[in-house]
């Protein structure tokens, strides 16, 4: 048995080596690669991914799983279970269908880019129809209990089902739209133009690094680079890299973006050493990951206590014009709420409404209740209903996100779950720590340690809702987000 | 047959994918990796290298080689021959001995670092003894015709033998030592302190980039980064990266270093597309590679025509102090000849003498004519004999280079060959082109194209001496280097 365990761990180590090589390759492609190197590199990534896939679905892997499945070693059992799930889900898709799907994905992404530019949904429609058909087929291969969409949701947020979302989302939506109405009727009108003054890149970078260090991001186990689309990527817990984007006319892009990616990175940097070289050495779900980035971005970066105590720090790096901006005006401006068309530009309050639009549409698509051709109209209707605005074209509407073009159905809900998890985690943390006081102190070590102890260290060895239950003593509860937003925005908008 | 060829090419493509992943990994480790990521990464590199090695020595590979060895396709035949050589040389080393050797290498490198720091050869001696013993054993496995050292030389400069070197090197050495004597007796005394004025990094970088662009280095197929130890590395001909080092007190480090690495990179960038995804898509030998970097560094960068016509360009980027330095003083200063202890700091004339010391010692070691324990004394005696100076300690003597600690015996001669090849190539080029006129024009396209047409495009599909014969219509001939150095330095030192 010990020999089998040894061989199993060797196989896991090989997988981890491929994962690290793939992650490095991706990082390089997004940050450093010269233009002419891209084509050859894509083939290299494809090759490495195939090798990893072969190991994950190999007969040898199945042999080890069968031998070790009844082990008493709790951690080993979790690793074996994770490998089994990957093995089974991959094996359920016939190889030729999977190959066809991968080709479709890359064609669809390229057509989508064109269609978005031209605001022409009809170009993209036939590809999206095929992607939906594939996803329905795959969902049936994978199986589900109540709703076919659950089989897809499982890829991003295992344990969270349509039933859960259909209880939680409408409640959140109702509260958000009611809050939004009050905000729109408020006499307070934040002035975000105060913030868009020229702010040299090197000063934005210095400020971002200062905050990252205070957050406890370990620069000896990571680095910060410059990209168009900011991201965080883990090669392993000792090498977790982040990127940001500098807009010299709007510091918010880089500063809040860096804090957000820094939150993702802290999660990956603080996964227990015990999990390294196993498939559990990663965040447990998209939603929990997003809860970590949003925790730092909103509960620290857009928090009143933060700016009360850090406005001087900010002004140390910021251009002189900010001397004339009062703290109150500044704080209001960074928290302006305003319905907008583009999800990734949405504020903290309306963001979840963008998600609801997408969730309801993709669930209905996968369930065969609506057709792809009707998406643009349905999208615009829902935007009008939830946010009170109608996109001027499909470029600012149904064509804005890459997710569906990549076949990623079931992904969007994780973003909204991240907001709810973050608020719920923040509430529990506050019962043990005086969070605002720690933020005011300028040294956030206690916050980072609390998150690492309760969440980060476990990586993927706990399921998302297990984390939430263990940390907060209850299951997913949207009231914390609703209460937090109500309190925060009633203060800002004085209602 | 076509099917076998197809399968063979697929296998080559897999090897190329591993090579690119390994090259990227190395580049990242030397330029970007955070400190704590190094340990895990070393294991990833080891894993990828092992996978590549497995493919190169697989039974399947042997099968393809056997089937395709008598093909009429000239290029295919060369690829198959190269694969066969790799296969056979690897297979001749018993696996357990190779593993032991790899472990020894990494131990020895680490001990060597320590020993060098402490200037204590006795620490390193037992490791070097083992490394020599392994290399003798491997050389016997590989086989040779006349001298056991030839089997090692073959790893770096196939076709060049001890017999060749023993004809050429003494002749060069005699000329160099006689030139050196004349220089030391000259009344001309260059003043290199004129050059060591503060020169901001960003200006050095801009100047380096300007020269690289004029050389024809394609920034869309490469990039320039910052490191302690400058290098050039090819991921594939469309992604060839270089690094340089900026010393703000001495621009020569970055400017000549960048030109040197740019020369290596031009070679790799201009290898024919036909060779991509085969093992021939690389420089043919260490010596030919070095001929390319040295051609640009010396025949362009340290050339009188270059400075005559480019001194204004230089002053555009350089600090004001250079306004007061005359062109003549400047040109003399960048070409100062002065015996020194450290090979990598040696000037263009004395450099080859450093190589002769190493060549004679390592050849004698491998032939069992001297013992490891006697190296320090022998080293110092030869330094005194050829350069007229004795290192103050082994740190500046026998312990200065990493090559032997890595088991690289047979490597050093390539450096001196690179000088001779470069001079010989320069002579041939001058018969077709007016090289100095092209350099003076500031647009070096014709030079790059000549080198690409005659050398670069062939990659490893021609052997080193085949290249030299085809380009110069004769075999290796050291007279060109001797004549070039005599003419250049008799002008500078006026003898």
TrEMBL record, chains A, B:
GO annotations under biological process? proteolysis
**Leading EC class:** hydrolase
A Pfam match: Peptidase_M32
Q: Which GO terms describe its molecular function?
A: metallocarboxypeptidase activity; zinc ion binding
- Which UniProt key words apply to this protein? Carboxypeptidase, Hydrolase, Metal-binding, Metalloprotease, Protease, Zinc
Q: Which residues form the signal peptide?
A: none
Residues annotated as binding Zn(2+): 260, 264, 290
Enzyme Commission designation: 3.4.17.19
Task: Spell out the reaction equation it catalyses.
Answer: Release of a C-terminal amino acid with broad specificity, except for -Pro
Q: Which InterPro entries match?
A: Peptidase_M32_Taq
Instruction: Look up keyword Metal-binding and say if it applies.
Output: yes
Is Cell wall biogenesis/degradation tagged as a keyword? no
Domain of life, per the record? Bacteria
Stated role: Broad specificity carboxypetidase that releases amino acids sequentially from the C-terminus, including neutral, aromatic, polar and basic residues.
Q: Which family does it belong to?
A: Belongs to the peptidase M32 family.
Q: What is this protein called?
A: Metal-dependent carboxypeptidase
| Species of origin | Ornithinibacillus halophilus
């Amino acid at each position: 048995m010990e020999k089998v365990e040894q061989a199993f761990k060797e196989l896991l180590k090989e997988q981890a080596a491929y994962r690290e090589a793939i992650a490095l390759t991706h990082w390089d492609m997004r940050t450093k690669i010269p233009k002419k190197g891209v084509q050859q590199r894509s083939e290299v990534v494809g090759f490495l991914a195939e090798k990893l896939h072969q190991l994950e679905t190999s007969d040898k892997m199945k042999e080890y799983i069968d031998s070790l499945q009844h082990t008493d070693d709790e951690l080993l059992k979790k690793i074996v279970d994770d490998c089994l799930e990957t093995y089974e889900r991959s094996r359920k898709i016939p190889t030729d269908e999977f190959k066809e799907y991968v080709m479709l994905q890359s064609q669809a992404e390229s057509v989508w880019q064109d269609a978005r530019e031209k605001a022409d949904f009809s170009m993209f429609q036939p590809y999206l129809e095929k992607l939906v058909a594939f996803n329905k087929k795959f969902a049936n291969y994978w199986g589900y209990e109540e709703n076919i969409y659950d089989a897809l949701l499982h890829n991003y947020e295992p344990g969270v089902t349509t039933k859960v979302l259909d209880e939680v989302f409408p409640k959140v939506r109702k509260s958000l739209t009611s809050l939004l109405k009050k905000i729109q009727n408020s006499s307070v009108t934040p002035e975000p133009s105060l913030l868009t003054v020229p702010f040299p890149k090197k000063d934005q970078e210095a400020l971002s690094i200062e905050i990252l260090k205070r957050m406890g991001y370990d620069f000896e186990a990571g680095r910060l680079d410059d990209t168009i689309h900011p991201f965080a990527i883990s090669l392993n817990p000792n090498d977790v890299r982040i990127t940001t984007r500098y807009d010299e006319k709007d510091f918010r892009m880089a500063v809040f973006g860096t804090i957000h990616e820094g939150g993702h990175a802290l999660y990956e940097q603080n996964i227990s050493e015990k999990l390294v070289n196993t498939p559990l050495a990663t965040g447990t779900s998209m939603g929990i990951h997003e809860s970590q980035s949003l925790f730092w971005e909103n509960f620290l970066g857009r928090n009143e206590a933060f700016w009360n105590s850090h406005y001087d720090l900010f002004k140390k790096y910021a251009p002189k014009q900010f001397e004339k901006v009062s703290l109150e005006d500044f704080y209001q401006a960074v928290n302006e709420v305003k319905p907008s068309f583009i999800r990734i530009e949405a504020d903290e309050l309306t963001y979840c409404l963008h998600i609801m639009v997408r969730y309801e549409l993709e669930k209905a698509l996968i369930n065969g209740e609506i057709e792809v051709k009707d998406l643009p109209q349905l999208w615009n209707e829902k935007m009008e209903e939830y946010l009170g605005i109608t996109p001027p074209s499909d470029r600012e509407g149904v064509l804005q996100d890459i997710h569906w073009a990549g076949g990623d159905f079931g992904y969007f809900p994780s973003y909204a779950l991240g907001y709810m998890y973050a608020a719920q985690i923040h509430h529990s943390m506050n019962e043990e720590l005086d969070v605002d006081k720690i933020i005011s102190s300028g040294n956030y070590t206690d916050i980072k340690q609390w998150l690492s102890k309760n969440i980060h260290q476990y990586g993927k060895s706990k399921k998302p809702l297990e984390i939430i239950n263990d940390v907060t003593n209850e299951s997913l509860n949207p009231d914390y987000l609703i209460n937090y937003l109500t309190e925060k925005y009633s203060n800002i908008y004085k209602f």
